[in-house]
Specification:
2 domains, mainly alpha, 5 helices
Length: about 160
């Protein structure tokens, strides 16, 4: 089902890009329009080079060109250790089921051990899913080459 949704989304994106609603041609046209506006602003003293409006438009053009070039501009990414998440989910399911079986005929005090363990593992899953990695724009998330700095982990 997920593959079908991805295929439909890719087909729709290709059609919209081809007619110019989204994509590279639309971004190029936007950059050209912004550059023309930037040239026009130089004629007005209140909006000339060095003003806040001029600088903001320059920064927007720079970001648009970077996006057109394919630079990843995200400053943080989710770094989810999927193997650990799957293992923790299996432990939560197993120990949670064990606690439920122990309590079938009424509460048993010793069912707290697997129940608390399952709860703690569930909290660890939430921690694994919420972990973010700080990176400067343009860094690859596939791993840094020799000599590059590794992204900083933020909790």
């Amino acid at each position: 089902m997920e593959g079908l949704i991805d295929a439909i989304a890719q087909a729709l994106a290709a059609v919209l890009e081809r007619i110019g609603v989204v994509g590279r041609s639309r971004r190029r046209a936007g950059i050209r329009a912004d550059l023309d506006l930037l040239k026009e602003l130089e004629g007005f003293p209140d909006l000339a080079v060095g003003t806040v409006a001029y600088t903001a438009l320059q920064k927007r053009i720079i970001v648009d060109v970077m996006m057109l070039a394919g630079v990843d501009l995200r400053t943080s990414r989710r770094d989810i250790p999927w193997t650990s998440v799957v293992f923790a989910v299996l432990l939560v399911a197993g120990f949670g089921y064990w606690a439920a079986v122990l309590n079938e005929s009424g509460f048993r005090w010793y069912s707290l051990f697997p129940g608390v363990f399952a709860g703690l593992m569930f909290v660890s899953i939430l921690g694994m899913l919420g972990r973010k990695v700080e990176a400067s724009p343009g860094d690859s998330s596939d791993g840094a080459a020799a000599g590059e700095q590794q992204p900083q982990v933020r909790n």
